[in-house]
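Sequence and fold
=================
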Amino acid sequence: MKLFKIYEQIEGEENKEPKKVTLSKFDKKILKLMSRKNIDNSDPSEIWKFLNDTVSIDDQDLKLKISYIYMEDLIDEDEGESYDDLVTINLDIDELNDKFDDKILALSSNLDVPPFLIEEERYGHYGLQSYSVDGRDEYAVGDEEEMEEAMSEHAQNRIDEGLEYFEEWWVEQYLEPNDSDIEQFAEEEADNRIEDMSDEEILDEAGYETPSDYEEYKEIKEGELEEKLEEKEELEFELNDLDIDEDEERMEELEYEIDILDTDIRELEEEISELEDKMQDPGIEDAKDELRQKYIENTLDEIRDQGVSYFVDNLGMDFQDAVDYYFWFDEESAKYDLANEGYEAICTYNGDYDTEFINDKTYFIIRIN
């Protein structure tokens, strides 16, 4: 199949003066050699390989000229024709090259290979058109706008793959705590912790006195009460033995001391009664409420300090789950920053890219395998 019809004029340009090329003896010699070697004139890759590797022609323009002439299959050997019969032909290589897409021309210029060795592939690279060169190396090419779109797609793909593939410190700069869910978590943690504690442990942890403490205090007060009662009994015994006429002053002293003891006794009895009440109800509900609030605040403080690491390091949660359950991820900001980290991010082969300026536009060239 002929790839180019160099004898036909471009449609709409019939009156344009064709560009003439005169074949040199060397041109004819190479063309005849290619014919004798049965180089397939419909296979650009085979033609280019022969010119490069077999006859080792370094002149790029010469190789292009011979390739285009040979691909036209201008002679019919069965009719006795020979390349020696050709003198001058219509051939405008620049015009032929211009038939190719600008991206192919950019890649051709960058790699110093003829555009007819570059084939457009069906798949892309982050939305960029990809090409294979001589059936081997593959490249992606795009203008600035397409590169920006490719970077945006790259950023979205990375985020879609999962946040666990990023460094935690990087993700955390885009996280905002989900206060309602975190508070609910802290409350549930506090409830679960208190549920596993005995009343004695709750009172002690909350700084409350326990029933055993009150019992000790009661025993002390009962001892004091017993002493006061004995002291009163002794004073009353002494008072009963006194003569009202002879010991009036002493009697007044004893009565005063007994009154003081009665006051002390009443107070001790009241204190003992209160202690007995506290032994029955030491304030466990108040202690629970205070301890629960303490645990909630401690947990919230730790989460504020550690962020998502609190759930991952302390609880063994999956990083992605911790983010999904307890934080808001600012995906747009993260995506924006990823998309602007530099084109090297999508240069998957060697982390580098080249540029070519074709027809007033800059094209970026990325090797992808």
About this structure: The first strand starts at residue 20 and ends at 22. Residues 107 and 365 are 7 Å apart (CA to CA). The chain is about 55% helix and 10% strand.
